[in-house]
Specification:
Layout: H1 2-26, E1 37-40, E2 46-50, E3 53-56, E4 63-64, E5 83-86, E6 99-103, E7 106-111, E8 114-115, E9 121-122, H2 123-126, E10 136-140, E11 149-154, E12 157-162, E13 168-171, E14 181-185, E15 188-193, E16 196-199, E17 213-214, H3 215-219, H4 231-237, E18 244-247, E19 253-257, E20 260-264, E21 271-275, H5 276-279, E22 289-293, E23 296-301, E24 304-309, E25 315-316, E26 322-323, H6 324-328, E27 336-339, E28 345-350, E29 353-358, E30 366-371, E31 380-384, E32 387-392, E33 395-399, H7 402-407, E34 414-416, H8 417-420
Antiparallel strand pairs: 1-2, 2-3, 3-4, 5-6, 6-7, 7-8, 7-9, 10-11, 11-12, 12-13, 14-15, 15-16, 16-17, 18-19, 19-20, 20-21, 22-23, 23-24, 24-25, 24-26, 27-28, 28-29, 29-30, 31-32, 32-33, 33-34
């Protein structure tokens, strides 16, 4: 009897392990998954829902949805999230910035990951005139829509819901495919259908430009992309944040993201895309920060510094990588690094503090630190002829100097990285 029990336990353990392995293999966003729903949280981070899992942001592994939204697990019979959006309605603080999730006939309202009292409720109670078993939903604030609205999708049927009057206006979006999920990001509206997406006009449903496109090329950090991927357009227009950006002494710009990078040579508007592994094979991928000094690229990954002589091809110097602490006097990982003008002072950003490193002294020491109050985290930074560009997510902020970055108490105008740095308007 004991032997039978041991065998049963072993079989159950193997089955569980195989199911976990299968789930992990299936939930690889870079394999072209069809997402069930997409919504952007209060901090502007997209949440991609698939089954009972959730992907936060544009990279990283899936986690169980109930780890962030515990109550969803109390309603197993409802299945996966059908649709989701974040409400925009400033006239009603009780709903503004709340995330709404739709599961079968029910709707859940969360604020800062806490379920609001009385939820879940019937969809018809909260959004009268909107059907159950939705396919997708997306918020549409004015003036992008005539009134603060939510657009609901179910098959071929499109419903514009006025959040103030609760009036429902049924639309017909002839040029757009049926959406399996939708979301509003960086002033654009995206309809996902399978693992493809189209950008659409929220008022008319018109799709302009060359669509559909592969979702993983623009909304996911992957080491490999679809065979039909246009590498330059993908890197120009990707919604995934940059890891690092710099320009060398000749004025050539390098922008790094995941396993790939863009390059634009001085005096030439043409962008070129390549893999980091091909041009900087010792790095392989995913740098944390890069800056240029005296015709060398200082490339930082984790707690190591790689040094390359600029040229065709770039030459990796013997003896590198070396510990970052040994070379620049600071422990890794760091968030960003840059040099302004012809100076010999490297500025390093780490944990909301900016440090200065004099590259002409030995040993080098990171000192003269100043706090940065404006950003919780910086993704990349670069100085050019116009001053300092600080990149956070999909936007950058222009400061006249590093000193202004630490002294400022209000954010300058945010600008889109893909549009103003790489000329991508979609």
């Amino acid at each position: 009897m004991k032997l039978l029990a041991h065998i049963l336990c072993l079989c159950l353990a193997l089955a569980w392990a195989q199911s976990e392995e299968h789930a992990a293999a299936v939930l690889d966003r870079c394999e072209g998954l069809e997402m069930d729903a997409v919504a952007v949280n209060e901090e502007g981070i997209p949440y991609f829902f698939k089954g009972d899992h959730l992907f936060k942001g544009f990279h990283g592994k899936a986690e169980l949805s109930n780890e962030s939204f515990a109550e969803l697990d109390d309603h197993h019979h409802l299945g996966h999230v059908d649709a989701a959006f974040r409400m925009h309605y400033e006239d009603n603080p009780a709903d503004h910035d709340h995330m709404f999730f739709f599961l079968d006939t029910k709707v859940f309202s969360y604020y800062q990951h806490k379920l609001e009292d009385g939820y879940p409720k019937d969809i018809s109670e909260v959004f009268p005139g909107i059907p159950d078993h939705l396919d997708a939903a997306v918020e549409c604030p004015k003036p992008e829509c005539d009134e603060d609205s939510v657009i609901f999708f179910k098959g071929d049927d499109i419903y514009h819901y006025n959040v103030r009057t609760k009036a429902v206006d049924e639309k017909e979006f002839k040029s757009m495919p049926n959406c399996t999920s939708a979301f509003h990001f960086m002033d654009h509206y995206y309809c996902f259908h399978g693992h493809m997406f189209s950008k659409f006009d929220p008022k008319t449903g018109e799709v302009h430009g060359r669509y559909p496109k592969e979702a993983r090329d623009y909304f996911m950090r992957c080491s490999k992309f679809s065979d039909d991927s246009d590498h330059v357009e993908r890197e120009r227009c990707s919604r995934v944040h940059l890891d690092a950006i710099t320009s060398d002494n000749a004025g050539n710009m390098y922008a790094f993201r995941g396993h790939h990078f863009l390059r634009r040579d001085e005096g030439n508007d043409t962008l070129k895309a390549d893999t980091i592994e091909h041009a900087f094979k010792e790095l392989h991928s995913e740098v944390d920060a890069v800056f240029s000094y005296e015709d060398h690229l200082y490339m930082i990954k984790d707690d190591q510094l790689f040094l390359y002589k600029v040229g065709e091809p770039h030459t990796h110097l013997d003896g590198y990588p070396k510990p970052l602490k040994e070379e620049l006097g600071i422990e890794g990982p760091i968030e960003a690094a840059f040099i302004c003008g012809d100076h010999h002072i490297a500025h390093i950003i780490k944990d909301q503090i900016i440090y200065e490193v004099d590259l002409k002294v030995s040993p080098r020491v990171a000192g003269n630190e100043h706090p940065i109050a404006l950003f919780k985290k910086v993704d990349a930074a670069m100085c050019d002829a116009l001053g300092l560009k600080v990149i956070v997510g999909n936007h950058f902020y222009h400061f006249g100097s590093p000193m202004l970055l630490t002294a400022s108490r209000s954010l300058p105008e945010q600008r889109r990285v893909s549009l103003e740095l790489f000329g991508c308007d979609h």
